[in-house]
Amino acid sequence: MLNLNRKLRALEEAGKPIKLGLVGAGQMGKGMVSQIMKMKGMIPAIVVDINVDNAIESYTLTGIARDEIVVTDLLSEANVAMEQGKYVASANADIPAAANLTDVVVDATGVPDVGAKIAIDAIMNKKHVVMLNVETDVVIGAYLKKMADNAGVIYTGSAGDEPGAVMELYDFADGMGMDIVAIGKGKNNPVVAGCNPDTVREQAINSGVSPKMLTAFKDGTKTMVEMTAMANATGYLPDVRGGHGPSAVVNELPGIFQLKENGGILSSTKIVDYVNGVAPGVFVIVTTDLPQIHHEMQYLSMGPGPNYVLFRPYHLTSLETPLSAARAVIYNEPTIVPLPGKPVAETITVVKKDLAAGDMLDGIGGFTVFGTFEEYETAKAERAVPLGLITKNTKLLKPKKTGEIITYDDIELDKTTLIYKLRELQETLIG
Known about the structure:
The chain has helices spanning about 5-15, 25-35, 50-60, 75-85, 95-100, 110-125, 135-150, 160-175, 200-205, 210-220, 220-235, 255, 290-300, 320-330, 375-380, 420-430, and strands spanning about 20-25, 40-50, 70, 85-90, 105, 130, 155, 180-185, 235-240, 270-275, 280-285, 310, 345-350, 370-375, 395, 410. With about 425 residues, the protein is an alpha/beta fold.
């Protein structure tokens, strides 16, 4: 992000700020709007939420007067408001991509099918799109990236989310010519695979987040989705299904992430994993074959070797997202995107509790299923269903036991969703 602050300041001084449209004004969205208001060279021009009061509040929390906010679901009125320098709050998710003056659209919904439409609309309207919605990216990111390339706009994941934060460290190490052994993220609580919105409700209310969101964190789904995005952006793979997930402190990581014959836990290198105990940080484990580099790393207090940890002790989630928007507009560069070609990893669907034929599944953060992390080719061979395709209209055709993988043969998918259709296209064209 070097020099981005100066570029933004220049836009501010020229009276040409980046106009950002945001879809999703929950906790993350509200924080993003507040952060943008402290930045130079960028305006949160349009904020959309299914509950328009959330969109309005995202503005008023920053001190914007109510009479400076135009509430409308009409594109024509939104265009006029933007031309007049007003802020737009809406429940119409079509407006940010279609508005005349919008430069970049951010999806902060976390809903796979909704994210698919937001991204497609933005790309078709020649707007850059930032996905603070990894759940969509891990299902159809390769296709969306290809579409954006063809349209001449940027499709990107977000700075501040763990995949984006890891990518910064990865690019740093890779650019230096370091040998990268492993990449990963911290997790701040053990996986409780059977948790659901009812069991976490009290904690969610006390934390100010939705029970579904907290469930997705606690049952491990969010971590698996994030590791899938890291894998697809780097080509690195899970060492084992779901990752090892050891418990450790930072200075233990170089010893843990070594091959088994050297006293570590790995069967191979160039892997993605997570660690209980180093949240909210992200890490990259590096080594080298040159003795002088080892000597200098040790002189610089990076540990005894042969592996060393590069550790970032924070990720600021949606507060950093505007930096990805700025990078897309100013430099025409993404923060993190899937590699060209087919994906290398998948977040597949696992049964959360014993289910009977005829039961309806409910998707991410629900009562019936959660996600785990697997190689794309293995998932494809097993006909494992990507978790992002599961909706409340997905019907189970046969009984399944807790911990079993859901396959395409086990369910009747809702094939009317946009994300399902785009996934089919991705598999045909890329997969």
